[in-house]
Amino acid sequence: MERYRVLLVNDDGYQSRGLISIRNRLIENGFDVITVTPDRNMSGSSHSLTFTRPLKIEKLEENFYYIVDGTPADCVHLGYHIILKGKKPDILVAGINTGPNLGNDIFYSGTVGAAREGTMLGIMSVAFSPASSKNPDFDGMSELALKIIKQVLHKGLPDKVFLNVTFPNIPIEKVKGFLLTRQGRSAYKEEIKRYLSPSKEVYYWIGGEEALEEECEKGTDYTAVKEGYVSITPIRLDLTDYRGIEIMEKFDFLNIR
């Protein structure tokens, strides 16, 4: 039986329940898992790489478990180039994230950023997240994630495309199936909280409240998880709006003086 090599990363840190769940599931099913995670919660770090200071890799356990004092994309970069010495793994798994990565979340998410970095390095990559951070069933999600990972390893992915997978936050036995979806729009109530320190200094905390109750378009990631399906959204590295180019050719930019 062929043993597949998995590079496992996340953005919530090495103590994340979602990470531990998918890691255990993969190991139990005969995968060789190389885990490289940030040493703390790095949610919202997107696809950032650390250029302003040196990075440190620390071995947490003997069985290929490492932590990095950097971003999720740093973990991918160092995992591939340093720990694996440039030997490409069969697949990169990012997650399972603690909270959702739906719609516009993909631009902020460190989990999705890690999958994007893996794709840029030529590694088939999948990002996994729950639809809600409220009491997620990570064991059930890891069972579903394993099915997707096996399918990707068997069938492959289109060139320069990775998957953003979101699980509905319901018991696994109630999941209706898997749907290919497109990226939805933001469904969060944006919020900035103002705090006053004992020394009267003002601070602000940026956040947003989960709000999947609003009406969502058919075929989107939001609608899929709301209706009890696992959402599988293919994401391209190329963000160019080719239709936009056709429209804007009429603007005559070349003749701007």
UniProtKB/TrEMBL annotation:
Reaction catalysed by this enzyme: a ribonucleoside 5'-phosphate + H2O = a ribonucleoside + phosphate
Xref: Pfam families: SurE
SUPFAM superfamilies per UniProt: SurE-like
Cofactor(s) annotated in UniProt: Mg(2+); a divalent metal cation
Top-level EC class as recorded in UniProt: hydrolase
Keyword Metal-binding part of the UniProt annotation: yes
Primary location: cytoplasm
NCBIfam families according to UniProt: PRK00346.1-4 (NF001490), surE (TIGR00087)
Family: Belongs to the SurE nucleotidase family.
Entry protein name: 5'-nucleotidase SurE
Organism: Persephonella hydrogeniphila
